[in-house]
Amino acid sequence: MQNSGSIRVTVVQNNPGFGQPEANRTSVEGLIFAGKDPTADLIVLPELFATGYQFLSKEEVTELAEPEDGPTFQFLSRLSRETGAVVVGGVPIRRRGGVSNGALVVSGDSLLVSYDKVHLFDRERDLFIEGRSPLPVVETPFGPLGVMICFDWLFPEALRSLALSGATVVAHPANWVLPFGPQGMILRSVENRVFTVTANRVGEEARGGLPPLRYIGESQIVSPKGEVLARAGQSESEIITAVLRPADALSKKVADKSDFFEQRRPELYHSGLTYRGG
Question: How do residues 238-264 score in pLDDT, each as one tens digit?
Fold first, then answer.
């Protein structure tokens, strides 16, 4: 999609069947092309959108993992070519030493960047290897795009690092089960003055006697001022869209003399006791 300052963003909220990547990719494609105009500048899909989430073992993870240029990359590449969008989606990626909970950023035939989730949630720590590289910011036709995955959001430093690196829009594939995620991301958008685009899933998984996981939906697109530009429901697979101007995220001012980034005092931000009583 051609744009002159404004871009169209599409978020996919799906309900993947566990271990059915081909069927899940087909379902996502159906959601995107069900409307009259599937074109976009940015499309964001959930974390592990093609595999499901509740793995029982490392063996299952390994079986469903892919190389960076595997079937999910090929799908995202075709989706990008057919819609004109930069496409972001979550996939288990084969790495040396294990499998990461990863995300691919694809434009046409090109893999712009892959990201291995840095902050693993709960049982993920037993199944995936931790990312060891900084959260990425990649240049796109609409400006710098940051990427993080699900639980990364609960670490303020994660999104702050993306904003400090110049990201104006942050793609956030997720599999949220914690109820406070959507409201928390509003604060993350405001405190960093960036657009955040969260693609969550819906449904329930209860496999192998593990406690059921219920995914809360509420995928959303939030402005730098904390405005919810679009939000999905809690239970259905659906598409949400919004038009936004990345340039609106360039200013970090909240008042004439108050600039979020200019007034940072990193030399004073540290851990440990500063004063001792007595």
Answer: 999 999 999 999 999 999 999 999 999
